[in-house]
Specification:
The structure is a single chain. By secondary structure, the chain is mainly α. It has one domain (23-148). The chain is 68% helix and 7% strand. The protein has seven helices and four strands; from the N terminus they run H-H-E-H-H-H-H-E-E-E-H. The strands form two sheets. It has a two-stranded antiparallel sheet with strand order 1-4. Strand 2 (111-113) and strand 3 (120-122) form a beta hairpin. It starts with a helix and ends with a helix. Keywords: Membrane, Transmembrane, Transmembrane helix. The chain crosses the membrane at residues 32-58, 64-84, 91-109, 121-141.
Length: 149
């Protein structure tokens, strides 16, 4: 009987948390997903988490590798989209489409370095990538809904 009351209390509390989450704006939901993606593995086959991809992604820009450089640039487009609120909504929507397009280049990454010795691990995109790209898509959905209003 006590377990049933305790379980019922947990269900009610989680329902209240869900109601608070649904009150968030699309931009806030997008930022939450982006933050979670920074602490989850980007790839299956490697334990490289998102924050390391964000830090070391500049290597792809210096190597002129589009599969490494463009996803790294997508982060700056995303941040610019969040920071510059006063720009035209059509321009923000266009930047969001470009951000998603650049982010999709991550799918082309098949090997990541394991250590300095030159060993590479075969990888495919993982949960961190899915959350990261979802944050871009949620932001775009919010911008489209703002344009409809």
């Amino acid at each position: 009987m006590v377990i049933g009351k305790h379980l019922f209390g947990i269900i009610i509390k989680s329902n209240n948390l869900f109601k608070k989450y649904t009150k968030l704006t699309y931009q806030e939901k997008s930022m939450i997903l982006y933050g979670i993606s920074l602490i989850t593995p980007i790839f299956f086959g490697s334990w490289l988490i998102g924050v390391f991809g964000l830090i070391f992604g500049i290597v792809g820009v210096f190597e002129f590798n589009p599969f490494l450089g463009l996803p790294w640039i997508a982060n700056f487009l995303y941040f610019g989209n969040l920071i510059f609120r006063k720009i035209n909504l059509k321009l923000k929507t266009g930047i969001s489409f470009l951000t998603i397009t650049f982010g999709l280049f991550t799918i082309g990454i098949r090997k990541v370095p394991v250590h300095e010795g030159g060993l590479n691990a075969d990888v495919i995109v993982g949960i961190g990538f899915i959350l990261w790209l979802s944050s871009f898509i949620i932001l775009l959905i919010g911008q489209i809904k703002d344009g409809i209003k």
